[in-house]
């Protein structure tokens, strides 16, 4: 079974773009979805990942700060890594239901 993943970048601030728009992988393997970004933020910021099926709105997966650890992923098989110019969403043990459009987004951390 081959799965197709679409990746889109949502610009909340500065710029973020997917490295590849179409990614194919087999069930049971793992896939890496990359987004490159640039920002002028000098404080903490977050890289967010969402999944969207054809029939609904975006669903939050996780976010990771440029400094620190990830939030608890909505799905245990998902994790993220961040460096100064890119973020990657790693999905392990791929399942048919992972076939979707994945969105990456960049947002400044706010303190309330």
TrEMBL record:
InterPro entries attached to this UniProt entry: Ig-like_dom (IPR007110), Ig-like_dom_sf (IPR036179), Ig-like_fold (IPR013783), Ig_V-set (IPR013106), TCR_variable_region (IPR051287)
Keywords: Adaptive immunity, Immunity, Immunoglobulin domain, Receptor, Signal, T cell receptor
Gene3D superfamilies hit by this protein: Immunoglobulins
GO cellular component terms listed in the entry, alphabetical order: T cell receptor complex
Domain annotation Ig-like: ranges: 18-112
Domain of life: Eukaryota
Protein name from the UniProt record: Ig-like domain-containing protein
UniProt-listed GO biological process terms: adaptive immune response
């Amino acid at each position: 079974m081959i799965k197709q993943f679409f990746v889109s970048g949502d610009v909340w601030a500065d710029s973020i773009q997917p490295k590849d728009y179409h990614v194919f992988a087999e069930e049971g393997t793992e896939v890496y979805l990359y987004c490159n970004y640039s920002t002028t933020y000098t404080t903490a910021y977050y890289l967010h990942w969402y999944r969207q099926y054809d029939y609904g709105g975006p669903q939050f997966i996780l976010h990771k700060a440029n400094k620190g650890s990830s939030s608890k992923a909505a799905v245990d098989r998902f994790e993220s890594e961040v460096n100064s110019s890119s973020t990657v969403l790693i999905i392990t043990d791929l399942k048919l239901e992972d076939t979707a459009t994945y969105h990456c987004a960049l947002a400044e951390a706010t303190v309330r």
